[in-house]
Amino acid sequence: MTAVSRSLLPGSTLMLNTDFVNLKSYENKNADVLALTEKKGGMHMLYVSELHKSYRTGSRTYEVLKGVSLNVEKGEFVAVMGPSGSGKSTLLNCISCFIPYESGLITLSGEKLSGLSEEALAKVRNEKLGFVFQDFMLLDGLTVRENILLPRIIHGEVTADGEKNADRLLKLFGIDAIRDKYPAEISGGEKQRTAVARALINNPLLILADEPTGNLDSRSSRAVIDSFMEARHSLDATIFMVTYDSFAASFCDRVIILKDGTVFRTLENKGSRPEFQGQLLNMIKEMSGDDI
Ligand SMILES: Nc1ncnc2c1ncn2[C@@H]1O[C@H](COP(=O)(O)OP(=O)(O)O)[C@@H](O)[C@H]1O
Ligand SMILES: [Mg+2]
Questions:
Q1: Spatial CA neighbour of 221 closest among 187, 254, 198
Q2: Which is the closest atom of ligand 1 to the Cα of 93?
Q3: Within 10 Å of residue 50's Cβ, how many Cβ atoms?
Q4: Residue with the nearest Cα to atom 27 of ligand 1?
Q5: CATH number, domain with residue 249
Q6: Which residues span the domain enclosing 255?
Q7: Could you count the other beta carbons within 10 Å of the beta carbon of residue 179?
Q8: Domain presence at residue 58
């Protein structure tokens, strides 16, 4: 992994992984947290409790998250919607520990993330989390297949198993024919499907996606959402997606609405997709005045 390619990675400096600490010793200290996050029949995949985050600009403190609590279960596809500036990206950045927060608890499959050392966090980010961003974050100098393998390259080795997984993902997301192309040679939808495949290469516990369809036309958006659905269906992936797009959100099992720094409401997808989209649009209307 060169310094150049490293600097181009999302959360670059934090994703460095050299000598990993042994997480075992941490697990013992974590016992109280495990008890807290346990639910009937197992652990929440993602558990966020009373999360508070504010930004200070000059002498003014601006509270963005005012006690956000939520959870995501294994195999769920959950969206977070909310008006622009409601703190959706801030929430994702807190979950990935890219930014500090004042108080609250965040656990991933029972493991508390905030107390981890940088080295342990780098390991969590590379092996247990997968990231998909609005602007794809692919490396221009690598082919589609090499981009998908990037987390393995960072890990230090690309095993036969890794290669097999990459080939499986290329096929699963219909991008096998463009495997040797470079990002400049493919469409936005193909770039984002490549990014989704990359996020899955290490079989992460949780995929975090920040407006993954934000830069795409509706057909490409649909292809990306289909790849998330496929990941859930074939790989039992758990996906937590921020979006302002009610169409994209209508494919989710649940949609969490953020407003004024807290969870305003959670809607469950119980009927058909169009019905659920209608419900989401009504909700947006109800929050009138806010452009979601
Ligand atoms: N680094 C920062 N410093 C100061 N304020 C910030 C910073 N990042 C975000 N904010 C502010 O926090 C609020 C929430 O931002 P963000 O989480 O990006 O919202 P969303 O993703 O929902 O549009 C916005 O008012 C934004 O201006
Ligand atoms: Mg945002």
A1: 187
A2: 17
A3: 12
A4: 85
A5: 3.40.50.300
A6: 3-22+73-98+121-286
A7: 17
A8: no
What global pTM score does this model have?
0.86
What letters, b where the CB count within 10 A reaches 16 and e where it falls short, cover 195-215?
bbbbbbbbebbbbbbbbbbbb
Residue range 210-236, pLDDT digits in tens: 999 999 999 999 999 999 999 999 999
Any idea which residue has 């490409």 for tokens?
Answer: 220
Which residue type does 13 have?
Answer: T
The verdict on the CB of residue 260 being under 6 Å from ligand 1 is no
28 CB contacts (<8 Å, ≥6 apart)? none
Q: What are phi and psi of 205, to 5 degrees?
A: -70, -35
Residue 90 CA, ligand 1 centroid: distance in Å: 6
As for how many domains the chain has, the answer is 1
Between CA 101 and CA 165 the distance in angstroms is: 35
Residues 55-89 have pLDDT tens digits of 999 999 999 999 999 999 999 999 999 988 999 99
Instruction: Find residue 108's DSSP bridge partners.
Output: 46, 111
Q: Do the domain assignments include residue 147?
A: yes
Looking at residue 181, what DSSP letter applies?
-
